[in-house]
Amino acid sequence: xxxxISGELTRPGLGGGxxxxxxxxxLLKLLVRKELKVRYRGSVLGxxxxxxxxxxxxxxxxxALGVFLGLERSARNPDGxxxxxxxxxxxxxxxxxxxxxxxxxxxxxVNNGNLIKKIYLPRELFPVASVWVSAVHFFPQLVVLxxxxxxxxxxxxxxxxxxxxxxxxxxxxxxTGLGLLFGAANVYFRDSENLVDMLLMVATWASPVMYxxxxxxxxxxxxxxxxxxxxxxxxxxxxxxxxxxxxxxxxSAAMPPNLFSLWxxxxxxxxxxVLALGQLTFRRLEGRFxxxx
Amino acid sequence: MANAIEVSNVSKEFVLRHTRSIxxxxxxxxKGRKGDLSKKFHALKDVSLMVETGxxxxxxxxxxxxxxxLLKHISGVMLPDSGSVYTRGRVAGLIEVxxxxxxxxxxxxxxxxxxxxxxxxxxxxxxxxDAIIEFSEIGEFIDTEVxxxxxxxxxxxxxxxxVHTDPEVFLIDEILAVGDEPFQRKCIAKIQELAxxxxxxxxxxxxxxxxxxxxxxxxYLEHGNVLFDGPIHxxxxxxRA
Lengths: 293, 241
Ligand SMILES: Nc1ncnc2c1ncn2[C@@H]1O[C@H](COP(=O)(O)OP(=O)(O)OP(=O)(O)O)[C@@H](O)[C@H]1O
Ligand SMILES: [Mg+2]
Known about the structure:
The complex is a heterodimer. Chain A is an all-alpha fold. Chain A has one domain (45-292). Chain A has helices at residues 18-23, 25-40, 44-68, 84-111, 113-116, 125-151, 158-188, 192-205, 213-230, 232-245, 259-286, 289-292, and one strand at residues 9-10. In chain A, helix 4 (84-111) runs antiparallel to helix 8, helix 4 crosses helix 10 (232-245) and helix 7 runs antiparallel to helix 10. The radius of gyration of chain A is 22 Å and the shape is globular. Chain A starts with 8 loop residues before the first strand and ends with a helix. Chain B is an alpha/beta fold. Chain B has a single domain (3-240), classed as Rossmann fold, CATH 3.40.50. Chain B is built from eight helices and nine strands. In chain B, the strands form two sheets. A six-stranded mixed sheet of chain B has the order 5-6-7-3-8-9, sandwiched between helices. In chain B, strands 2-1-4 form a three-stranded antiparallel sheet. In chain B, strand 6, helix 6 (181-196) and strand 7 form a beta-alpha-beta unit. In chain B, helix 3 packs across helix 4 and helix 4 packs across helix 5. The two termini of chain B are 33 Å apart. Classes of the chains: A mainly alpha, B alpha/beta. The A-B interface holds A 1, 3-14, 24, 26-27, 30-31, 34, 37-38, 41, 114-121, 188-192, 195, 287-288, 290-292 and B 1-3, 6, 14, 17, 20-23, 25, 53-54, 72-79, 84-89, 91, 93, 95-96, 99-100, 102, 104-105, 109, 112-113, 116-118, 121-122, 168, 198.
């Protein structure tokens, strides 16, 4: 009997990195769908909740911070930010996306340990799928944000909308890179999750989400302020402000200097470098995942 | 005849680490590295195994002799410390019942998920879906969440998906035990059919009668060493001795 000898001898278990992802796009899709299905258990309410929660969050910000605390610009508080709730929320949705993406992708390898120990498949799929799931969860928050913006008199131009896409991409790449890095590290040191939690807390406060960049510049001076600006999350948040909050104001507020000529490319490059480093570390460590899990 | 699997001088050492946290590692460093954080364990020692395309091989040995570890090297889940592993064609491993199944998803969703995990495309799964369900005899339970399945039902679905991936090399680790008698017979018939089609099989099982029926060659492992490699009946006889 002649058997067909198909293909060459290959070494099993050597992944091709992100090249594998294109070939496994169907599996990636199923993994994302699985996450979402498991999360919502097919309930209509589940999906509804993901709209209700950010909507309530937005209202609370508006009332508690804008009205009660008086951070909103008014006759008594001329230095305040106009439409503070929109300002705050446009930064928060991006931070939420980053937190969820990084938190889940950092845990994804250990959580899927049972599978990784038994069947070979491109392991990058798990952190990347986590980031996609977070992007899906980002969508309802974006809807709430846009509604809030429209109510506040939003009139963006095409460039401002592009800025939002850029900010989202910068933060998405950064989360993927760090997710790969910490996802792999977590296999060896299970308490590196604590580092991630700490990082996420710092991330919220180390970017102008709650406050305005002008306060930072006034306190830090030019050198340190440049460092502050080099944080890709800061750039992402400022791009979101430019896209969502700025077009609701009278345009008198100043945007950070050189946001597009300097900080956008810097943020993008740093994010891509982190992504490359994360991917590199991941590939170096993944060979031993199955035995360490 | 060409080889489907070439395992050459593979050694594998596991590090039995006592710590999995940064905290303990730091404490260990601060205390002047007293004591060893890790103990080493040799699971495979200079193992070589050439399997020709179309051969049916049983891996035999007592618990902890390294059978599963060797299968994991062939499937690519683990990489050898030294030596090399090569395979030809698509390898599908049935390492454990239900690995790759998600309890909260229905049988249907799990067929797609598991099929994709084992390397099938969307089109292939669509085409073979009915055949998969028919072989598994899951019937109306296909839309039930698999957490409500019995372990035998798990096995049926998992085995059915795996055989329908149509691999050139099929690795089976100790899974047939949970199936009931009729289904076991069906599985064995299917495995024999695959063997006749010229597929390469590597089977791990403690059921010596079963492997004698399926396989023609036996490899006897002990503490990570290959003690015997030859006709299945001799290998079984050695193990029973
Ligand atoms: N990830 C791991 N880390 C440390 N030791 C391991 C690991 N995997 C396996 N071992 C050890 O390697 C040895 C061989 O394990 P293996 O699972 O290959 O045995 P086996 O022959 O399949 O046994 P069984 O018949 O019980 O299935 C065992 O002593 C086991 O404790
Ligand atoms: Mg075993």
